[in-house]
Amino acid sequence: MIDNAASVWPQTVASDSQFRFSAGISLFFPAYNDAPSLPSLLHRTFETLRRVAVDYEVIVVNDGSADETGKILEELRQKYAPFLRIVTHDRNRGYGAALRSGFAASTKEYIFYTDGDGQYDPAELENLLRAVTPATGLVNGYKTRRSDPWHRIAIGWLYNSFARWLFRIRLRDIDCDFRLIRRSRLAPESLRSTGGPICIELVRSIELSGSQVIEIPVDHYPRRYGRSQFFRVRSLAWTFLQLCEVFLRLVAAPTLLALGRRTQTRECSSPAAERLRTP
Fold first, then answer.
1. Is 44 in contact with 8 (CB distance < 8 Å)?
2. N or C: which end of the chain has fewer CB within 10 A?
3. CA distances from 113 to 25, 57, 64, 128, 139 (A)
4. CA-CA distance, 59 to 194, in Å (whole number)?
5. pTM for this one?
6. Which of 145-159, 227-241, 261-275 has the lowest mean pLDDT?
């Protein structure tokens, strides 16, 4: 049975009742074993969209959950039809794969996503929508504080700092999955990771496109149900391996290719090469 129990989010969110975002919005959640948090999360989401959006759709990507997620989502689909769609993976494919499915299923001009565990308040989407300009490719949240145990905060800080340095990303909080993306700035072919490093691929491709990137502070709330899948030894090891693969593909290989081309150009334009070409 669906239970829209009170959440950790504030009961009142400041809002201008006259504000309406005119462009279409596809909003999706990747979900893995998030059955307890989904009812209140979707209740809050539709409450927000009805207030601030004109044209919208909501999608949940059930990434092979082993709990009651599938059953709960079917009840929620009937409750919120026709605005809620469900994409189901027959097995757990990973966070990156869930995001790729969400992007593929989205049909509107703007795409917003955040996690299905309820640690972000969907009502804060309004702040991102207000920041959009004609030049904007990405509006990304950054956590004003992180409501997690100290070891998760430390690991998250290290990961974010290392990834920003390694990939020369300007965004201050890669790890904040509270993102509004202009669909035309999304490059699906550049997204190959099945794990967390997909966020690096996504943010880096948008930054390199020259689109405007805006950062907005958002609140981060304690996880009420379940356990994070990221902060486990196996998940961290797999993330590190994928991070290495992304670096080789996006940074090392293009750099070596460009270096080879420059070397070839210098050799072709050298005096010795000119003498060889002279009859």
1. no
2. C
3. 10, 12, 18, 12, 11
4. 19
5. 0.84
6. 261-275
Strands 178-182 and 110-114: antiparallel
**Three-class secondary structure assignment of 251-266:** HHHHHHHHHHHHHHHH
Residue type, 259: L
Give the up-direction half-sphere exposure of residue 94: CA atoms within 13 A in the CB hemisphere.
17
Q: Give the fold, CATH level 3, of 25-268.
A: Spore Coat Polysaccharide Biosynthesis Protein SpsA; Chain A (3.90.550)
Do the beta carbons of residue 100 and residue 28 sit within 8 Å? Answer: no
Structure tokens given for 221: 């709330």
How much is the pLDDT for 136?
97
Q: How far is 278 from 39, CA to CA, in rounded Å?
A: 77
Separation CA 25–CA 187 (nearest Å): 18
Calculated CA dihedral for residues 234, 236, 238, 239, nearest 10 degrees: 160
Give the pLDDT mean for 13-40: 89
Of 170, 173, 169, nearest in space to 120 by CA: 173
Which H or E run contains 28?
A: strand 25-31
- Binned at pLDDT 50, 70 and 90, residue 269 comes out as low
Find all residues with CB under 8 Å of 203, minimum gap 6, and list them.
138, 140, 169, 171, 174
Tell me the two tokens of residue 69.
């997620």
| Residue closest to 118 by CA, chosen among 76, 70, 178, 199 | 178
Q: Can you tell me the distance from the alpha carbon of 156 to that of 220, in angstroms, rounded to the nearest whole number?
A: 13
